[in-house]
Design a protein that fits this description.
The chain is α+β, with helices and mostly antiparallel strands. It has 4 domains: 155 residues, Roll (Ubiquitin-like (UB roll)); 37 residues; 146 residues, Cathepsin D, subunit A, domain 1 (Beta Barrel); 40 residues, Helicase, Ruva Protein, domain 3 (Orthogonal Bundle). It has 15 helices and 16 strands. The strands form 3 sheets. Strands 6-7-12-8-11-10 form a 6-stranded mixed barrel. Helix 5 packs across helix 6 and helix 14 packs across helix 15. It is found in: Cytoplasm.
Length: 410
């Protein structure tokens, strides 16, 4: 096993020793490392002096434990328990322990390499935090020791014991997971970083806001409160009511068929589904991304609109309102209140227009009834095939103007 020895001058030494090694032999190894004669060494473990004829295992010394070494002269000038550790891993005298470590720049440099969190706490002024961290490290060493003992026990287990073999299989699987995690941490550390969603600055009907760009949402949505703030609630068509399903559900209050949005310095027409969703102010969905030929350029970190005629940068984390980044709270609210996040479907509440969908925040697809047939007939009169007209109307949620623009563009 490996133990760490801290000397009076705060030198840190790691030793590989047998659990049944005598204290005297450990002192002999330390004499080679520190040039301090064996007779002048005094070893302390958990605040108790370790006598030469005692065994490490009998004293309870375990793998990765810390042992203090002081010379007899140093022991006379300071109480022997000042630099010792309690059975729970905390320092007997945390102030003296902290000061001893602070005074040695070499020791602190090693700690910053091996355990930067502990090094920061030692440099701080919170002794309670230092004690808590020392106890935590002691628990971690104890857990590691327990796991090692379990592994040794499994190696000696009966090969025909089914339960033992299951534990061995689980241990092998966990080892593979741990190795995979370590490899990811070394070669792909960015995978553990927080991913910030894509937001851009826009103006809706002259009101500036932060728009969430989501190509996984089928429709562009705006919350009721945001629509009211932008002066658009008066244009709400309540015939398009429904229920949007996703992570939970939210009521679709209706649709605003067209309103100006400003991206960069150019204005574009946009239609919205209005949701009773306080958690999502404005979401720029796939319908408008397609209509305005947008490109999500993650290499340059910009949103290109109109095939590239205007580019706006995605916002950095510091520029996004904190309430948009509080993902944990948002997720809890969504699951408890039934609000959709980025995908879902709309269920029909009233007769025309019918509400249906496959994915996205909300989708209103008028696929039957006199209104739908009237739109089909009007577009067919323009010279388009019936099947193409139906597909275009479905693609744009029954929006006749957008469907016509798509057909003319094709």
């Amino acid at each position: 096993m490996r133990i760490t020895v801290m000397t009076a001058d705060e030198q840190i030494i790691s030793l590989e020793v047998d659990p049944h090694e005598s204290v005297e032999n450990v002192k002999a190894l330390l004499e080679v490392e520190t040039q301090v004669p064996l007779q002048q060494q005094q070893l302390l473990y958990n605040g108790r002096e370790m006598r030469n004829n005692e065994k490490l295992s009998a004293l309870g010394v375990k793998d990765e434990d810390l042992v203090m070494m002081v010379s007899n002269a140093a022991a006379l000038s300071a109480p022997s328990n000042n630099l010792g550790l309690n059975p729970d891993g905390s320092a007997v005298n945390p102030g003296a322990f902290q000061q001893q470590l602070r005074n040695d720049s070499n020791t602190m440099a090693q700690l910053f390499q091996a355990d930067p969190e502990l090094a920061q706490v030692i440099l701080g002024n919170d002794l309670n935090k230092l004690q808590d961290l020392l106890r935590q490290r002691h628990r971690q060493r104890s857990e590691l020791h327990r796991q090692q003992e379990e592994e040794f026990a499994l190696l000696e287990a009966d090969p025909f014991d089914v339960e033992a073999q299951k534990k061995i299989e689980a241990a092998i699987r966990q080892k593979g997971i741990d190795e995979n995690w370590a490899a990811a941490l070394e070669y792909n550390p960015e995978a553990f970083a927080r991913v910030i969603m894509l937001y851009v600055d826009m103006e809706v009907n002259g009101v500036p806001l932060k728009a969430f760009v989501d190509s996984g949402a089928q429709s562009t949505i705006i919350s009721k409160s945001c629509a009211e703030r932008c002066g658009l609630l008066r244009l709400l068509d309540q015939r398009y009511k429904g229920i949007a399903h996703g992570v939970g559900q939210s009521e679709i209050l209706g649709r605003i068929h067209v309103a100006p949005i400003k991206i960069g310095n150019i204005f574009y027409p946009c239609s919205f589904m209005v949701l009773d969703s306080p958690n999502m102010e404005f979401l720029f969905g796939l319908d408008m991304l397609r209509k305005h030929q947008c490109i999500i350029d993650l290499k340059e970190n910009v949103l290109r609109v109109g095939g590239g005629e205007v580019s706006v940068p995605f916002l950095q984390e510091k520029d996004i309102p904190p309430r948009f980044l509080d993902e944990e709270r948002y997720s809890k609210e969504a699951s408890s209140s039934g609000n959709p996040v980025t995908s879902g479907k709309a269920e029909k509440k009233n007769d025309p227009p019918a509400m249906g969908q496959s994915s996205g925040v909300a989708r209103s697809s008028v696929t039957q009834g006199p209104d739908f047939e009237a739109k089909v007939a009007k577009l067919v009169e323009l010279g388009f095939g019936r099947e193409a007209v139906i597909q275009a109307l479905k693609l744009f949620d029954g929006n006749e103007e957008q469907a016509a623009g798509f057909l003319f563009g094709g």
